[in-house]
Amino acid sequence: MAWILLVVAGLLEVGWAIGLKYTEGFTRPLPTVLTVLSMIASMGLLGVAARTLPIGTAYGVWVGIGAVGAAILGIALFHEPAGAARVAFMVLMVVAIVGLKVTSGQ
To answer: Would the pTM count as exceeding 0.70?
Structure first.
């Protein structure tokens, strides 16, 4: 169950990272509220998952999901560059996330 909560927390991190772009410096009320709620929920779920999982693993996976997800959505939504090296490093991050899961013993 902790892993499911951690993945959801990571996806919510993607949501608030992308949401920051839509808040336009926290000047737009609806995107700001949704972004802040996403932040709270993401960190709350990370905290719950960290009760069971090692904190280094939980935090690493959370950050990794957030970073890869934000990069992918940045490419898709904001036309950020998607060069071969950038994609290769995102793949390496996914490998690291899977590696943390496999070696966590849980």
So the answer is: yes
